[in-house]
Amino acid sequence: MSNFAFNNPAFQQQDPRNVASYPGASQGTYAPPPAPGAAAGTASFQHAGMDAAANAQLEGMYSAPPAGAIETDRMTVEDTIWKTAGLFGILLVTAVLGWVWTASSFMNTGRAEMTPWIVGALGGFVLAMVITFTSRKKVRPALIWAYAAFEGLFVGAISAFFEIIWPGVVIQATLATIAVVGVTLALFASGKVRASAKMTKIVMIAMFGYLAFSVLNLILMWTGVLPGDQAFGLYSAEIAGIPLGLIIGVLVVFMAAYSLVMDFDQIQQGVRNGAPRKYGWLGAFGIMVTVVWLYVEILRILAILRGND
Prior knowledge:
It contains nine helices and two strands; from the N terminus they run αααααααββαα. The protein has 309 residues and is an all-alpha fold. The protein has one domain (74-307). The protein has a two-stranded antiparallel sheet with strand order 1-2. A hairpin with a 2-residue loop joins β1 and β2 (242-243).
């Protein structure tokens, strides 16, 4: 019931009653509580020894440097943030390539080259499916880096295409995306917004409905059922003078923002579960999937608004 990137036991809530979930259980260090009826003298001796050990442990904790993801080989929020930043760095590099490729083809031939758009979209989709269905057995960072590269090619190409038709729309979409992500993160960090089971079900149902709408829209455009002057197909239809694409776009932006909340929540759950450090790559991958989806939807909303000016 969330971003498919997080369909892994590492991000699922664990049952505290399960002995295997206790720290050290996998190493055989977990022991049941002592049986009642121990001698009072023995109990006092053990209590004094435990106090001394606890004090020594506290002194060691305060004197030792804090352990991070590298030292513990465990997933942390900070390490996931750095991995996310690295993936977006790769995306930006290939986005420049996709932008230049598309823009130069338009300048030379008068038509925008669709190759980087198609290659990026198909390559990103295939890799996303491979990453999702193989992550339960093994996390492969190289595939996630490749996904970021293909996704950047797609984002750069589609951005250049929209910019050619509606100059200035890309910077507007970029700023709007940053604003939505920033506000969502701030609300989540403050504890004012959290994912709930009921809202998650509603959003997931809406997502499936939107997916069906998008597929139908593509089929009608490819088969020529929709007029050729409707660049967005069904999105160009109007309800009471308001473009249907604008109404749907606002709802989709809300769904994408809520998906970010679910992503943040599941990353925190992975940290609480003590997931291995490598699962931070899946967390970063999930955030990238959602943010790219959010950017494309905002880009489409702005293009529809500019097209009706």
